[in-house]
Design goal:
mainly beta; UDP N-Acetylglucosamine Acyltransferase, domain 1; 8-stranded parallel beta sheet; 3 helices; 23 strands; 11% helix; globular
């Protein structure tokens, strides 16, 4: 096992202190002196940029990420799982998370960022147990693919939301608890409360996924 991942792991589980930030900077991460980083697990995380006033709680897991960027005064709570599949990373997928200025991700969320996840300035992923997925099976090819999830500025996502691969939320929008967010939402100043799945388009019977188990 390589020494460098072990060092980041050991430093990550140190209590929040200025010495911890210093050690991370010495290893090549860009960590502002004012950042507050709790007890967390960092494993196989490449590039990290933590700006002024960022707050990261404790017991979060960061795994197999190419880039972590937290802009000024953004915040991550506790017990979040943020990871990407190494397979997609090796194929050139984004495998990154970006929190804009003053944005918030609260507690106990699951974020698959294989295809990339970005939340804009002043936006919030609130409550608990929301799921962000950025990869899935394309029925036409029966192959896995990644698609980035983007949330614009000053938008709010309620608790227990499910955000599908490729979802794009524009600025100034609110999604209620339990929302299924799939597709593109461009209209600003909208409240979304429906979570019912509805048919959106037809699929070809010849799609490979429907014929995988044919003799």
């Amino acid at each position: 096992m390589r020494i460098r991942p072990k060092l980041f792991f050991a430093i990550g589980i140190m209590p929040r202190c200025s010495l911890k930030n210093l050690f991370l900077r010495l290893l090549g991460w860009k960590i502002d002196k004012s950042a507050k980083i709790g007890v967390n697990i960092f494993w196989n995380v490449e590039v990290v940029n933590i700006a002024h006033g960022v707050r990261i709680g404790s017991l979060n897991v960061f795994r197999d990420l190419r880039h972590v960027c937290f802009e000024s005064d953004s915040s991550l709570g506790n017990l979040n799982w943020i990871s990407a599949s190494p397979v997609f990373g090796n194929l050139g997928s984004d495998s990154s998370i970006k929190l804009g200025k003053r944005s918030v991700v609260t507690n106990r969320h699951y974020l698959d960022v294989s295809g990339g996840f970005s939340i804009g300035a002043g936006s919030a992923l609130t409550g608990v147990r929301s799921t962000v997925i950025t990869h899935g099976v394309n029925p036409s090819s029966s192959a896995q693919e990644t698609r980035m999830v983007t949330i614009g500025r000053n938008s709010l996502i309620g608790s227990n939301a499910v955000i599908a691969p490729g979802a794009t939320v524009g600025d100034f929008q609110v999604f209620g608890m339990g929302s299924l967010i799939s597709g593109v939402y461009n209209s600003s100043f909208q409240l979304h409360l429906s979570k019912k799945a509805i048919p959106t388009r037809s699929l070809l019977p010849s799609s490979r996924f429907f014929n995988v188990f044919d003799d």
